[in-house]
């Protein structure tokens, strides 16, 4: 178990692409529906993710803001595939690009499938008040906007957002 | 991942106690609410269980009847305790008693806490049509009665059942 502190941002340009050091394709789904977590009948989201040839089960508490309890366990690939088939909502597909910065690492999620067109940058921080430098391609923060949660993207993908939602973080 | 085939019965007397070969105290909770599973907004239940000094995460599909997909993973004890605190509904507490019978093993769950008074016998079978001998203490089958599901007992425990529900399986 760990405490995850994560901030999420939009991007202002494609300039980040030149800084990518590695990328990984990911497919993930959720065993719970988003409503259970957003309405508070459930305290955690339970995610199944295949990253390349590795599979993981992830449990995250639903506290608002950037800080969450997080639990992660390796899964046999056959289990992950069977569990993905038991997920509800859409499968969330993306390529995650890694851009190291000092001791930290930007993760740029470039979504595909029903979320194609959406790109966000995430940064996991060691402390709530940890300092980090803002790259020139970094845009508005969306850490607290629920519709950018991957859990919500599984239920109401980017392709179903209104033009206003797509334009206005 | 495995397929679990399990049948559940009430008991007609205490005669089973003389046949118990071992017993284990268990505390468990669910990360999802029962409604999500019974209403079908979610396809699985996710259970955290501490059995003596061992802790496990268990995921079970919600198909009706005796057959389910089941996934089980060991948990670090500290994770299990943190996850139990994130569960919804009541904590289900019981002592599980084991009574071997040929290649099979009866599991008698004697509940305590908010489910005190309830005792059920479960038998896991290798095949749907597997033969098994009915012990003289075996009562009515309740495999298909949702209120006996442990998931339901976490939401609406035995102490909240009506007298008619307690009397009539």
List the helices and strands and how they pair.
Two copies of one chain form a homodimer.
Chain A: E1 2-11, E2 22-30, H1 34-38, E3 44-51, E4 54-61, E5 67-75, H2 77-85, E6 88-101, E7 104-112, E8 119-124, E9 138-141, H3 150-155, H4 163-167
Antiparallel strand pairs in A: 1-5, 1-8, 1-9, 2-3, 2-6, 3-4, 4-5, 6-7, 7-8
InterPro entries (chains A, B): CYTH-like_dom_sf, CYTH_domain, NeuTTM/CthTTM-like
Domain CYTH (chains A, B): 2-155
Protein name (chains A, B): CYTH domain-containing protein
What are the key terms here?
homodimer; 169 residues; mainly beta; Hypothetical Protein Pfu-838710-001; 4 helices; 15% helix; globular; NeuTTM/CthTTM-like (chains A, B); CYTH_domain (chains A, B); CYTH-like_dom_sf (chains A, B)
Structure description:
The structure is a homodimer of 169-residue chains. With 169 residues, chain A is mainly beta. Chain A has a single domain, classed as Hypothetical Protein Pfu-838710-001, CATH 2.40.320.10. Helix content of chain A is 15%, strand content 46%. Chain A contains 4 helices and 9 strands. Chain A has helices at residues 34-38, 77-85, 150-155, 163-167, and strands spanning 2-11, 22-30, 44-51, 54-61, 67-75, 88-101, 104-112, 119-124, 138-141. In chain A, strands 1-5-4-3-2-6-7-8 form an 8-stranded antiparallel beta barrel. In chain A, strand 6 (88-101) and strand 7 (104-112) form a beta hairpin. The longest helix of chain A has 9 residues, at 77-85. Chain A is globular. Chain A starts with a strand and ends with a helix. In chain A, 31% of the residues are buried. The A-B interface holds A 1, 31-33, 35-36, 41-44, 46, 57, 59, 61, 69, 71, 73, 75-76, 78-79, 82-83, 86-88 and B 1, 31-33, 35-36, 41-44, 46, 57, 59, 61, 69, 71, 73, 75-76, 78-79, 82-83, 86-88.
